[in-house]
Amino acid sequence: MNLVYIVMGLALVQYLYFGFAVGSARGRYGVPAPASSGHEMFDRYNRVHMNTLELLVVLVPALPLFAYYISPTWAAALGAVYLVGRFVYFFSYIKDPKTRGAGYGLSFLPVAILLLGGLGGAIAVQFRG
Questions:
Q1: What's the pLDDT score for residue 129?
Q2: Burial of 34: CB neighbours in 10 Å, binned 0-12, 13-18, 19+
Q3: CA 117 to chain centre
Q4: Is 82 helix (H, G, I), strand (E, B) or coil?
Q5: Of 6, 8, 1, 2, which is closest to residue 110 (Cα–Cα)?
Q6: Digit-coded pLDDT (tens) for 82-113
Q7: Distances (CA, A) of 70 to 38, 58, 59
Q8: Separation CA 66–CA 95 (nearest Å)
Q9: Of the candidates 124, 111, 105, which has an alpha carbon nearest to the alpha carbon of residue 62?
Q10: Which long-range contacts (CB under 8 A, 24 or more apart) does 20-26 make?
């Protein structure tokens, strides 16, 4: 389970990194708080950060759920794929939002597998005779 918690912690650190990138972009592109848009490049950083949050809220509980009912090793591996996918998403979205597909797939699919696998495992245990 330690690997699962390490991956979970790294996902949170990654999210903080993306948040710092948004703050830096806010200054670089002259978007004063509390505005949440105003320059296309700032908007890209901000969208990556918010899109990451949308997946992170599912990833964090899905990781230990999958680890408990299926496999901690596979949970950590899928979480690592998510981390790589989010970095691919970050860099491709900043460069050109139209190229974000691979990064999205590499981060969404592991999260979906973790959630569905963990939920399926819990259901299977509940209904075993």
A1: 58
A2: exposed
A3: 17
A4: helix
A5: 8
A6: 999 999 999 999 999 999 999 999 999 999 99
A7: 45, 17, 15
A8: 34
A9: 111
A10: 21/45, 21/48, 21/49, 21/90, 22/46, 22/49
Q: How far apart are CA 77 and CA 116, in angstroms?
A: 16
Contact criterion met (CB below 8 Å) for 4 and 76:
yes
Other C-beta atoms within 10 Å of 98: how many? 8
Q: Which of 18, 38, 14 is nearest to 26 (CA)?
A: 38
Q: Is residue 120 part of a domain?
A: yes
Domain of residue 45 covers 2-124
Q: What is the pTM of this model?
A: 0.95
CATH number at residue 103: 1.20.120.550
Distance CA 94, CA 41 (A): 7
Look up residue 10 and give its two tokens.
Answer: 């790294």
Which tokens belong to 16? 């903080």
CB 3 within 8 A of CB 73: yes
DSSP 33: T
Domain count, the chain: 1
The alpha carbon of 106 is separated from its chain's Cα centroid by a whole number of angstroms, namely 10
Taken as a whole, the chain contains a residue count of 129
